[in-house]
Amino acid sequence: MSLKCIVNAAENWGIGREDQLLVSISQDLKRFRALTTGKTVVLGRRTLAGFPGGRPLKNRENIVLTRGADIPDAVTAHGTTELFRLLRARQNQEVLVIGGESVYRLLLPYCDEVLLTRTFGDYEADRFFPDLDVLENWYIASAEAELEENGVRFQYLSYRNAAPLPLPEEPI
After folding, report:
1. What's the chain's Rg over C-alpha atoms?
2. What is the pTM of this model?
């Protein structure tokens, strides 16, 4: 299985504030759609609540990690044991982790790649992605030229994990 994170993070690694994205970049949202359509995405309940109508993303298999009730039109994981079982069942698929902070932190060690949109600027955040520049085993594999949309500068980078962990067989 290929497990990847896809995230838009500011220079301070901020990803959100008050359950909203820090910035909305049309070009980046189109890229996100292109990279995730037809694939399995993993997200938390609070991230799902931030989507239009609080509904799962169309044309993707949504696995939602929650302690709450089952989510209509999604596969619901009621804990990490169930989540890892669901992920192991998708060994031959590309799975993308799409947020939020706690889901990223939980699954990052098992990911082989992070598809990062680095948004330049000073954004106040209350949710953060781990700083890949200081984490062991993570390195920048590719970086595209800086882009700009409506005065917002951003760049696409790919970080690779030199030693992703295997998915655990036992409860963690």
Report:
1. 15
2. 0.96
